[in-house]
Design a protein that fits this description.
200 residues, alpha+beta, two-stranded antiparallel sheet, 8 strands, 13% strand, Cytochrome P450 family monooxygenase, heme binding
Length: 200
């Protein structure tokens, strides 16, 4: 359990930072999220909020917390994959940031942060298959559900209690991702300006 909690801190915090950066650039989206958050009391029903869920999914798609997902070794005899023969013993992995950018039919304007793509019913199942920030199957990250839960709590609390904007020192260049050890997409410091919301 300690391993799950420790492993999730950096990846979850970097994802939250990027989502908050994108939201700070889009006050209209923040207002929609704030209105949606007012429809539930407390935190017990955050998982029912469709726009909040779509925003987190889009953050995980656009800047996934892990650059390279789990590797697999091709079994004895090799295998055919997408028209190519891959010899046995070859180590395969996927690059999480590019996997959701290879299908313009499913992800138009893939370089734009757009949570609404997760609210459209058309092709939603196909989109979900390509969203693999925590890997899939028996080797799925055991902390994936915890990470999403934390994102809902933290992002929800920040939107409920604050208005926020991008600080002058936070720029597209400072927020450009880079891979550390091939496993994490990290970001420089994300400075935002927070203003407490007036209580109704």
């Amino acid at each position: 359990m300690a391993g799950q909690l420790l492993a999730a801190t950096e990846t979850t915090s970097s994802t939250i930072s990027f989502i908050m950066y994108e939201l700070a650039k889009n006050p209209g989206l923040v207002q929609q999220l704030h209105s949606e958050l007012q429809t539930v009391a407390g935190n017990n029903e955050l998982d029912t909020l469709k726009l909040l869920d779509a925003t987190i999914k889009e953050g995980l798609r656009f800047r996934p917390p892990v650059a390279l997902t789990g590797s697999r070794t091709v079994p004895k005899g090799g295998m055919e994959m997408m028209g190519y023969f891959v010899p046995e013993g070859t180590v395969l992995t996927t690059q999480a940031m590019s996997i959701c950018r290879q299908r313009p039919d499913l992800f138009p304007n893939a370089d734009v942060f757009d949570p609404s793509r997760w609210l459209e019913s058309e092709c939603l199942g196909e989109r979900r298959k390509l969203l693999v920030p925590f890997v899939v199957g028996t080797r799925r990250c055991p902390g994936g559900n915890l990470a999403v839960y934390q994102m809902r709590l933290i992002i929800g609390a920040l939107i409920r209690n604050f208005k926020f904007a991008v600080a002058p020192e936070t720029t597209p260049k400072s927020m450009r991702p880079f891979e550390a050890n091939g496993f994490r997409s990290r970001y420089d410091r994300c400075n935002l300006i927070f203003t407490p919301r007036e209580k109704a």
